[in-house]
Structure formats: C-alpha cells, structure tokens
Amino acid sequence: MPSIRPGPATPGLTGKAKLEEVTKLMSTLRVDLKEKNLLPPQRNQLLEQLKIYGRDVENAGPIFTNEGIETLTRHSFDGNSLITSREALRCLANALFLEAKTRQIFVDMGYADKAAERLKHDNKDDEFLISRVLFLMTYDTNLDFERLIDEHHLADSINQNILRHSKHYSKSGRKVQPTQQDELALSETLKLLFNITHFYPHKSEAFTKSIPQILKIISRHKVPHPPLQPPITYLINALMNLDLEGKKAQPFGVNPLFPTLDQKCNADRLINILDQAVTAYQEDELDTLAAPLVTLLRKMYEIAPDAAKRYMQWLLLPSDEERNRPLGRSDTLASRLLKLSSSPLAPALRENISALMFELSDKDATSFVQNVGYGFASGFLMSHNVPIPENALEAWSTDDSGGVKVTDNSSSGLPVNPITGQRIDSEPQDTGPEMTQEEKEREAEKLFVLFERLKATGVVDVKNPVEEAINSGRFEELDSDDNVKGKT
Questions:
Q1: Which residues in the chain show pLDDT less than 70?
Q2: Buried b vs exposed e over 370-401: b needs ≥16 C-beta within 10 Å?
Q3: Where are the alpha helices (DSSP H) in 171-330?
C-alpha cells in the first residue's frame, strides 16, 4: 500500500488554489473507495480538510456534484470505521445544507434506509449527524418518511433518543448533566420530529409517547436568557403537531400536560417562559419566536381541566388592579400581551395573542370584550366574523341620559368602561366648561354618522341611538334658531 501523507489543512486557500485542493481531495477519497489505499488516520485527515473547505460553496464545486455526494455518502455508510463515518457525515451534512440540489442525489442513491437504521445507535454523535441529514431530506426531496417509519421504525428511534435525553433531567440532580453535544443532538432530533409531524400529520400519533419526556425536559431545563433559544424553542415546537389530548393513539391514563399532583405545573412553566420572552426581545423578533409558544398555550387551554383553565386565566387575563387605567398601560404580562396584540411589527403574534385571549374568554364575544376591552377585541371579532351579542354592544352605546352603558366586568362590582377596560371611577373627570347647544348638535351629528357607518358594514345589527331618540319623540323642532332640543 503506497504511503500517503496529506499535509495539514490550509483554510486560507481561496480561488483557484482552493478549487485545485478540493478537486485533489475528492479524487483521492474517490479512489480510496475502490482501492482502500489510505490508512484510517489518513482518510480521516483528508475528510477533516474537506470539511473546512466545504463550509463555503465558492470554489468547492467538486463536493456538490453527483460524484462528490456519492463519494461522501459511501464513506459515511459503507465503511467499517465509525470515526471515518462521522467525519464523512459532517462533510455530507454541510453539503446537503448548502446546496439543496444535492439532497435528491442522496435520496436517489437509496441511502436513506441506511440512515434510518443508523439512528438506532445509542450514540449522541450519530444522533446529531443522522438526524440533521434526515431533517434536510424533509425539504426538496421525494423521500417517503412514512415508509421509513413503517419499515425502519424511525419514530421509535426518535422516541428512544428523546427518552435518553430526558434521563439527564431529574428532580434530585444526581444524574449526569447534559453536555453541549447532548443539547445539539437533542435539537436536531426535535427539528426532525417537528418536520415529520408537519408534513405527515397522520403519523403524529407515532410520537405521542415522547410528550411526557418533552414536558419533563421543558420543566427541568434551566431557562436561558433570552429564553426562546435552543433547545427550548425546539421543545415547544415539537409539541405543536402532536396529539396532546391522546385521542389518536392509546388514550392517556392521566394527560401528562396536566399531571395529577399538579395540574397547573406545565402551564405555569410555559407562561413563565412567555413572561420572560416579552421583555427580552424586540417586537419583530417576538413575531417569529413567541408565536409557537402562544399557539401551544391556546391548544393547552382548549383541553385543560377546569382548575388549570382558571389558573391560566388568572395569569394571562387583566386583573382588577390593572383597571385603574386603560388596559394595556401597565407592566404586567397581560398588559404587555395586549399591547403586542395590536403591534404592526408582529402580525403573526398579534393574531395568536388575540386568539389566545378569545380562548381564555371561552370563545364568548361578550366575555372577550369584558376581559380585554372593546378597543382590543373589536379587530379580532370583525376579522373573524364573530357576531357581537347585544349585551356586548350595549357597553359602548349611549343610554337615555347620554352616558355610556357599562357592564360590571370586575369582581369589585365597580362599573368598567368596556371600550378601554378602565373603571369608570378612575377615569379623568372633565373639568372644562359645559358644552354649548351648538356643540351638542355637532356631536349628535357625528354620532349619527358613526352609527350609520357601523350599520352599513353588516357586521352588527345596531340601532342608531340618535335615530331612536327622534322616533321616540325625545327630539322636537323649535321655532327659534335652535334646530333641535331635548325634552326635559
């Protein structure tokens, strides 16, 4: 066997020099597949050099050809050395990530089956690399993951890996703490789980047994700062497409979302993460990062027992103490969420927050208005064509004396302005001069026009109070210059 001693990698090579070096490396590795003329340390060193050059597509073309992907794939799966295999897998994963066209090449070679079988190995390096390769196969390929689940037990392998990770998190703290590589492997596994359940929702029940393990990790993993980063984000996302109610697979004895000992613990943990997140990120960042968490809370509330529902309402809806000023003005979590629900920088999140508040109001329009104020509720109700009951409309219509009719929204029994959610007794009092008759007429005119426009939308059927007053005889024509006067 000829002695081949490759030199150390030269990351600084660019342009033609880099292309020539990559071409030489790929040629040597391709020949080695047939002739086995490299010693394992030599082969590993060549792959390590190639990995460095393959981090940038420019002047690294031979890696991304059919021949290049075949060479890396065969070194990844056909050799006897696990060290060599993992070095080749790192090169392959980089190539599949950087060039989408290479993914179908891998699938067409028929190596996805071998990848699924390899995921059965109880090894965090294999888990990290194989899960990443399979995750990339969920995009821009025709790979049939349903077959991998049915014939190669891919779901069982993923569930087993998540179970292994969950063992790092114990109440006593006596277990070995997860390493950075453990967390990277967990993240790749969770990403793969999410994509499979997203693209193959009918297979989501195959992962139901991982729900308790995911919740265990969420509840015991230290919340980083800022909070919505891996693996927390991937843990949350992984739950999104799963059968949280346990209806599709074998029903839960006790739903792990609401354990018997403390039905509120998981909701409390997730809401705590949300509370930290809304102060740690800018609004545009929250639109991407926090929307899945809010959606998960909505799904949880929908299936929660009464005790957990009341707890979530207590944490997320405005309290009586906040009603001494218009809702959305204080620094509580509820107020910050209400402000985000009207943010132009967070279109996905604002829809999710409004939907969550509607869920917390048991999908009742009247309760929704009372809980958050008509100012925050109106846009969501109208955009979703939710009929507004008459008792909700009364909250902002005028009464016989010209005042605002309010609903008793608070446990304190004090009247609350349904538009702003503020207690009437806390509103600033008008100390200015009394309106002249002419000013009253102009305001009546404006009110008439506003109600006519509202009726024209067809969203609600409301009677114009000015028109009602005229029809009932409470307004009459006068011979003086005053056109309209109210009877006393």
A1: 1-11, 172-175, 249-252, 389-414, 417, 421-432, 454, 457-488
A2: bbbbbbbbbebbeeeebebeeebbbbbebeee
A3: 180-199, 211-220, 232-240, 265-280, 283-289, 291-303, 306-316
| Predicted TM-score of the model (pTM) | 0.82
Is the distance from CB of 79 to CB of 85 less than 8 angstroms?
Answer: yes
Alpha-carbon torsion (438, 442, 444, 448), positive or negative? positive
CB 68 within 8 A of CB 108: no
- State how far the alpha carbon of 399 is from the alpha carbons of 233, 343, 437, 463, in Å: 50, 33, 19, 12
In the chain, the largest separation of any two C-alpha atoms, in whole Å, equals 120
For 237, residues 6+ apart whose C-beta sits below 8 A from its C-beta are 190, 191, 194, 292
Side chain identity at 168, as an amino acid letter? H
Q: What is the pLDDT of residue 487?
A: 42
pLDDT at site 485? 44
**311 vs 265: CA distance, rounded Å:** 10
Measure the CA–CA gap between 116 and 120, rounded to whole angstroms. 7
For tokens 């294999």, the residue is 126
Q: Residue length, the chain?
A: 488
Helix axis angle for 180-199 and 124-137, nearest 10°, is: 30
Q: What is the pLDDT of residue 208?
A: 94
pLDDT tens-digit profile of 74-97? Answer: 999 998 899 999 999 999 999 999
